[in-house]
């Protein structure tokens, strides 16, 4: 079994009598990537091969800690990442039953995210890269979310993706592994952040059924028992040509029409992918299903456990980049994390200026 030096955070040679759980004589002729994720409040790692097999994974969630503090405290998240990253990486590697020497590369989230959290993952990864002499693949967190669907489904480029999470809300056209056209984004805070704030304002953590749930999960859980028609509330900024008109459904509808008018998407059987933590919400998925049915598109969503932050999506993004020959670094000098980083080329202004009229859809959920 591999031993991790807790002080240095690097792999050491196994001491005498220790053995790594590995099949002797097995030849790895395909690419295998270790993915490491620490962009926010989950410490995660996974080993994935180029056929999409998840060989090993591990994750440590900080949710319960941050629920008690009323939100994510960056310094607390940083310390928890430091306390757990070595164990999590070792667990993923041990579960994979391969030797680290058989890894093709190490992929790590370096942008965007919480600076203190990103720093822990990057520092650990660079030490590991130096120890194992493996290529390093820097990963854009939102690119990884967008490409996860290609791990679970046979999806070809181009396709639309709606990324909705606690930190982001992006609508983009995915033309290639690292080729994105940004069609729209949230005006201020992300949907997941908004749900968490509402949950805190309502003190849902004190509800006996929601004490260990994130804000979004708690609201969805309790909303199933309520009457959403009790109050008549109009959507905010419902006349604005921005990404929050009538929620994300209206913006996504306009994006589909825009892309089809400009032949950026197939006229039939175009794919819309919804990913990110909020994409696990049943109401969101149902509204998007109604939209895609009306526009002759197909809605695809990764399994809920792959919608939230995880190491699998980072490793898979590494596989995608390895196969495409993109962003594979052998010289790690000067690599820095980027707390803020756009995704692709922003054409959202062009989408707004197109002034496409969106037909009314009857949403019954």
Give the SSE map.
Blueprint: E1 3-4, E2 11-12, E3 32-37, E4 42-49, E5 54-61, H1 63-69, H2 74-96, E6 105-111, H3 115-132, E7 136-140, H4 141-147, H5 149-152, E8 159-164, E9 169-176, E10 179-185, H6 191-201, H7 215-223, H8 247-261, E11 270-275, H9 282-294, E12 297-300, H10 304-307, H11 311-324, E13 345-346, H12 348-353
Parallel strand pairs: 3-6, 6-7, 8-11, 10-13, 11-12
Antiparallel strand pairs: 1-2, 3-4, 4-5, 8-9, 9-10
InterPro entries: ATPase_NBD, Gcp-like_dom, KAE1/TsaD, TsaD
Main location: mitochondrion
GO biological process, one term: tRNA threonylcarbamoyladenosine modification
Summarize the structure.
The chain has helices spanning 63-69, 74-96, 115-132, 141-147, 149-152, 191-201, 215-223, 247-261, 282-294, 304-307, 311-324, 348-353, and strands spanning 3-4, 11-12, 32-37, 42-49, 54-61, 105-111, 136-140, 159-164, 169-176, 179-185, 270-275, 297-300, 345-346.
């Amino acid at each position: 079994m591999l031993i991790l030096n807790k002080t240095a955070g690097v792999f050491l040679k196994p001491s005498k009598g220790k053995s790594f759980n590995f099949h002797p004589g097995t030849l790895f002729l395909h690419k295998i990537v270790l993915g490491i994720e620490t962009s926010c409040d989950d410490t995660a790692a996974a080993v994935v091969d180029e056929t999409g097999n998840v060989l090993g994974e591990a994750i440590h969630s900080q949710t319960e800690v941050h629920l008690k503090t009323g939100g994510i405290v960056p310094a607390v998240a940083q310390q928890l990442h430091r306390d757990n990253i070595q164990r999590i990486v070792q667990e993923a590697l041990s579960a994979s039953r391969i030797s680290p020497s058989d890894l093709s590369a190490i992929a790590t989230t370096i942008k965007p995210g919480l600076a203190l959290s990103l720093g822990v993952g990057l520092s650990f990864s660079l030490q590991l890269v130096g120890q194992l002499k493996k290529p390093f693949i820097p990963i854009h967190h939102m690119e990884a979310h967008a490409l996860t669907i290609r791990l679970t489904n046979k999806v070809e480029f181009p396709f639309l993706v709606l990324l909705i999470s606690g930190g982001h809300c992006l609508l983009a056209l995915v033309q290639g592994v690292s080729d994105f056209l940004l069609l729209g984004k949230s005006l201020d805070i992300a949907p997941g952040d908004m749900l968490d704030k509402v949950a805190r304002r309502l003190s849902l953590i004190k509800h006996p059924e929601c004490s260990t749930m994130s804000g979004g999960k708690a609201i969805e859980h309790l909303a199933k028992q309520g009457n959403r028609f009790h109050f008549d509330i109009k959507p905010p900024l419902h006349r604005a040509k921005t990404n929050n008109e009538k929620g994300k459904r209206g913006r996504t509808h306009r994006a589909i029409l825009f892309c089809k008018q400009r032949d950026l998407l197939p006229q039939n059987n175009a794919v819309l992918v919804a990913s990110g933590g909020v994409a696990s919400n049943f109401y969101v998925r149902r509204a998007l299903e109604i939209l895609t049915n009306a526009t002759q598109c197909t809605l695809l969503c990764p399994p809920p456990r792959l919608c939230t932050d995880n190491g699998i999506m980072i490793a898979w993004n590494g596989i995608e980049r390895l196969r495409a020959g993109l962003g594979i670094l052998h010289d790690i000098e000067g690599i820095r994390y980027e707390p803020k980083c756009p995704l692709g080329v922003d054409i959202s202004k062009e989408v707004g200026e197109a002034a496409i009229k969106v037909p009314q859809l009857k949403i019954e959920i």
